[in-house]
# Entry
Amino acid sequence: MKQDFYKTITAVAEGLYKEKGSKFIAKIFHVETEEQMKSAMVSVKKEFHDARHHCYAYRINPENEQFRSSDDGEPSGTAGKPMLNQLLSFELYNVLVVVVRYFGGTKLGVSGLINAYKSATHDAINQSKIVTRYIFRDLILDFEYPLMNNVMRIIKEEQLEVVERKQELSCTFKIKVKKNDLDKVLNRLTKIRGLSVKELNNS
# Structure
C-alpha cells in the first residue's frame, strides 16, 4: 500500500545566506500547479528585479511527481540541483523555492555556490511551517431520504468529510475519502441497497 499523505508548507517564507559580500535570498511558496509556480516566479522577479540571478527548484504532485530546477546563469549544477536536493531531503511536495543572488564582487567557486544555494534554501524551509496533507478521493452519493441514517452512520464511523450536500427527498452528497481508505469505504457504501456511488477522477 502506497502512503496516502505527503509533507508541504502552508505559507510563503524567506531564508537568507551571506558569503563574501554576496547575498542569497530564498523565498519558498506552496504551489500545486505549474501555473501557480509561474505566477510566484513573476512576483519574485518583480520584487527582486535588480538581482543578477533568480534560480529555482520545484516539486509538485505527490501522486505523479513533477520537478524541475534552474541555475539561471550560474555554473551548471551549482544552484538548482542543490536547491532541489533540499526539497527531496525534507520530503516536501507542492513547493517552489526561488533563490535570488546579489553579487558581492568576490567569486565563490563551484563548491561555494553549491553551499550558498543549499544553505539559503535550507534556511527558508526552516522558517516554514511544514504540515502533513492527505491525498483524497471524492465520491458522489445519490440516495433517497429514507437511507439518510444508513449513509450518515458510515460517514460518522469512517470520519469522512462531507464537502457538499443537497438534502431533500432525493439527496446528493459529495464526500472526501482518504486514498488508502477508499476500498473499505466503497465496500461499506455499496452494501446499502438503493445508494448510487460515483467516484470522481480528481484527488
Notes: The first helix runs from residue 34 to 47.
